[in-house]
Amino acid sequence: MARITEIEVNGSARRIDADPETSLLHVLRDQLDLTGTKYGCGEGECGACTVLLDGIPQRSCLMPVAAVSGKRITTIEGLATGGRLHPLQQAFLDEQALQCGYCTSGMILTAWALLRARPDPSEQEIREFMEGNVCRCGVYHRIVAAIRRASDLMKKSNA
Amino acid sequence: MNLGSITQAMNEPERYELDAPPQYHFELDRRHFFKMLGGGVAVFLVLKPLRAFPQSGARSGEGFSRFQRQLPQNLGAWLHIAPDGAVTVYTGKAEMGQNIRTSLSQAVAGELRAPLGSVTLVMADTELTPWDMGTFGSRTTPQMGTQLRRVASVARDVLVRMAAERWNVPVESLAAADGHIMNRQNGQTLAYAELAQASALAKAIIEDDPLTPATEWTVAGESVAKIDGREFVTGEHKYSPDMSAPGMLYGKILRPASFGATLKSIDLSGAKAMPGVVAVRDGDFVGVAAPSEQEAERALAFIHAAWNTAPQISDRELFSYFKQNTEEGNSQGWEGRTSHEMGSVTSGLAKAAHRLKQTYTAAYIAHAPLETRAALAEWKDGSVTVWTGTQRPFGVQGDVANAFQMALDRVRVIVPDTGAAYGGKHTGECAVEAARLAKAAGRPVKLVWTREEEFAWAYFRPAGVIEISSGIDRDGTLTAWEFQNFNSGSAGIMTPYEVPNQKIEFHPCKQVLRQGSYRCLAATANNFARECHMDDLARQAAMDPLEFRRKNLNDERLLAVLGAATKQFGWGRSPKRTGHGFGLACGTEKSGYVATCAEIAADRASGMVRVIRVAVAFDCGAIVNPDGLKNQIQGAQMMGLGGALFEAIRFGNGRILNGQFSSYRVPRFSDMPEIEVVLLDRKDQPSAGAGESPIMGIAPAVRNAIMDATGTALFSLPLVPDGLKA
Ligand code: FES
Ligand code: FES
Asked: What fold characterizes domain B240-310+373-420+427-448?
């Protein structure tokens, strides 16, 4: 089987030499040193490994690298532009929506997709959309507040 | 004080003046020190022998790296101001989400009167930081926080004195602020950097110098954001599993068929035949290292092993097993039996108008930090360096040294800020495993435990059985209190209520699952049983639970949090919707005082219990970082909800049956109640740690609220793993 997969990660084209069954999570972390994407469970239950595939949040731990060939992948490292934090990143800092921070990248990327679909989500919508992401430190309230703050920030910058 | 172990020799200082109290002398290799620090001002805090590194003649010196051996051996912490004004503080504590990197920096910046941004903490590195027992027991704030404030305040005094000399003015005419010394008379200023440039001065102090009272704190006492927060929201921070080294291999361990199983036979040839794979068997240890994680997994699958196993009990028999298998001695290295008796329970019960006897249980639960155990190990010239997330870097250093029968100073453990621990990362098994594989491979090896491994092969919060027998008189005053705890532990076992006749005992039991500390230790289980029982008694006495507690409490701080939480909650005033119930609980542990009120909604038809609203009041003395504290309290409520409602480890025959997030449910967004936090800032009281004790009120408050809503008294943690029974 072909071992080379071409993907686009955070705007640059990458040729990956790996067994096609290797998970995208391992490719990102071990081959591209994009370690902001985390392993938490390997079974799609915690969301720590979330990345955006053509703008849709996906669990990279369950995604064989061959399945993302030709797709645009965004990881947490690709969210800030020119040293400027994305409003979600800024809002997570403003609300101190982290303790150990291990869940943070998955939370932010999942929230990114939420805000794209629903620029002004209600608290209930946030809870439902984020349900698949675990924060064992229990920072949930602040994460909800951060997502709402980011929504405000983004509305302002679009206005 | 026994000073026999402290060496009496000292190198004559050249540029460094070692300004030590006369009875202490240190072997300080000045040149090495210079090279390391490049001049400036350094202040070392010397611990009294009792609290310092446990050094017997045989061990003395052995616990220290080459650099540390040049330093006094009983250091608590030290601080250095470099010629460019950068302040670096060295502490053996580890950051795991409790936010101490920030709160300790605040404490230092405050005492030193330096900008927060000028302070850097070097933490938890056995080569660079002073020996530390470990980051647990809520000791960081009361002990390390205090030590660092002392060090910083002395450093400030040193700077003031240096400026006074330079300007030839009395110290009283000078003030320190914002990284500068200012002459109050003429407004002249000198930056700390300028003073540090001109000198190379080291000063040692003893731990009990006076401190700035909390009422005069500057940076401490304010809400400050996580100082390196940006690295976390951008994904730049490297946790242990994110570390790498050139030529690194990936490790995997072959886990035994069940707990305690031993190898009967093994065939490694399949794995060894794979290119680039190293397979190791050493006793019952079997593992592989390979160029990628996937190859390592595949290699593991090629290993054929047979194990000797023995039948073991399951979660179903657990509680009766504990009762029949107490171990009154201290044979597991776990705490031994404790017993406290006052008055006579028998006569107290005889006097009682109402008597109540009840048994409460708590299941084993898992810490399940989102970052699983991970370690990167690298050998060089017979020494090994391990990066790993642990609460006990120096303990793990010892574990690794023991495992390879080598001297401690050949092992360096570095703890990158970690993806949480909650009491669950005291041990160094992953570090030892990675080091063993790296040694065999002759290359660096990284080992990241899978979630399943983390569930099965770490350790658990102890399960336990608690029996309470009590009596109250006609007006609701406690007359007797007997409390027997089997296995879960003795933390928080003493009752804060006034009872003339009490007997309180903890009985260690034969180990069933590997158990260890968990956020707040046994105080959670003990407080659960006690606070459930208090509500059950209040019901018997037909009294309001708040009134009943107040009647039996004398502890001013506990009464204060109880008052604050119930006021916030609207206890006795809030209207109650049908199917809803209100409950409260309080408790004190590790100098933290907590009271929690909960509102729940129970749906009889579906059996669903939802926690709607929680009000929690907390007092941990003078507050260092209010928002950081609030964050910890909110998080503790969320984490505590899991253990309260549904978390339980199921096991049988030496295997964990629900060791995955798909089968072991942890709290999620949908479980969020509204949480209101009231902070009681007691500037007159020393600051206590706050990562642990706020967790202890939520479970009994929820249980008591369920009783209020449904009339059903529950006695086990978790309360409703499968919903309310009809
Ligand atoms: S690691 Fe992918 S969902 Fe948990
Ligand atoms: S901040 Fe620790 S897991 Fe979310």
From this structure: Aldehyde Oxidoreductase; domain 4 (3.30.365)
